[in-house]
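Subgroup meeting minutes
Present: P.N., E.W., G.H.
Scribe: E.W.

1. P.N. recapped why we're keeping a running log of single-chain structure predictions: easier to compare across weeks, and new members can see raw inputs and outputs side by side.
2. G.H. added today's entry (539 aa).
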Amino acid sequence: MAEPKENVLMEKIVSLCKRRGFIYQSSEIYGGINGFWDYGPLGAELKRNVKELWWNTMTRLRDDVVGLEATIIMAPAIWKASGHVDTFSDPMIDCKTCKGRFRADQTDEIACPQKPSKCVNECHGEKTAPRAFNLMFQTYVGPLQDDSAVAYLRPETAQAIFAQFKNVLETSRQKVPFGIAQVGKAFRNEVTPRNFTFRSREFEQMELEFFIKPDEVIEAISGSVATVPDPGHPGEPQPNWGWQAWHQYWVEERVAFYERIGLSRHTLGFHVQTPEELAHYARATTDILFKFPFSKRDGQGELKGEELEGIAARSDFDLSQHQRCSGKPMGVFDDELRTAWGKLPKEKQDDLWRRYCENRKKYLTKTGVTDEAATKQATEDANGLAKGQYIPHVIEPSAGVDRLILALLTNAYSDATKTDEKGKVETTVVLKFHPRVAPIKVGVMPLLKNKPELVTKAHEVRDLLRPWMNVFYDDGGSIGRRYARQDEAGTPFCLTIDFDTLGEKPELLNTVTLRHRDDGRQERLAIGDLLTWLLPKIR
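Output recorded in log:
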């Protein structure tokens, strides 16, 4: 069998990340630790930019979303209620010959540790039968390490939002529909971390839980549930939107976010999960994909893409689970529903009551509640509609920060090889980041570092811009070399302070040369106009 071809582009990206300080392997001086990565100076800035743009977009620029920052370790009962303790596992196999351990569903892709160039199926050693491997990292809280002290590092950030739902609702002056956003670390003890930072054991998530009224409540209040054109953005939210409209709205909002940071729609893909793929509680899930170099290919040889973000319509499963397991109410009171319900004809009340009761019973029986107990509880829940009470449903856009960073690096990477007149071959690399996410926004350069008047003016320009953006001052080597260094770091703009800046040409006094990264174009700008010109492009 032919040896698998190396993924040249991924090798270049990994090399660049180490060389320029984007990403290093964790604990590298001790041989590294698989599945953990550290972000260097440029990587930390890139990651911070992405998270702040997400946060601003999802919370500060909206009236209907608030934030949360919860602890990494929470009560173990939360993970029992969410299903993670019992079902959050991957099938794992061991090879009795090479002693490798692999996910059973990925044996076609994973390299054998004893024969790195071979795939697992080429290692003919006897394999164990697949067995479940829980992905949560276990730890202990308190001085004793016994069963009573067991806790877990969170495998996702979402559950804290559900657990704190009532506190946030009562303190934030929000009403359904509204959302709670969180950015934070999560941990999964992956059997086989792979593809650089794509699948890691420690990573960050950006998650929104957007709580909405059940369709039966919308119909009771508005008379009907809106239908929206598909595909396409449904527009500004409307009072008569049900879960389908809200789900489509958030898919399009998330795509618009990616477009604003440089990932055009044609670089993305979409996967609408089939009924067989959906989680048992989900009504719909759309995955937004990015075509990474390591993505699988379709029958035509085109990259299919890997998941960047999933947008799921999760029904009322999560709040219902925490209500059932904690004994604490997770429902809301809606005076508009109570008033509207009283005005409905009896047959309409009966129809909405029946549908809501059936949905609640379906949830309860799926969680193992007996038919008799489920019928009783569902009846009580449906009776609450007349009192203006219900458990909200939720739409969940959940994105991985580290995957997005890798997508941005992949999308931005460009290189070219040139041979000069002496036959010397040189490869230049340009990272074409959108200015909004670029780690360094502006490089500031005096034409000559041995001319104090140029250096002084360059420092003035740097200090003018630094409160507003990340600026890199560079006076080492030729201007061409300095430009090349900034291109490789992804800096979109460079400012050169030259003798015209000092008034050698009186009409150019206090102007600088602004150089554009992507095409090398240059123009003169007045120092006093720099902020006005730059700020709209980097925000």
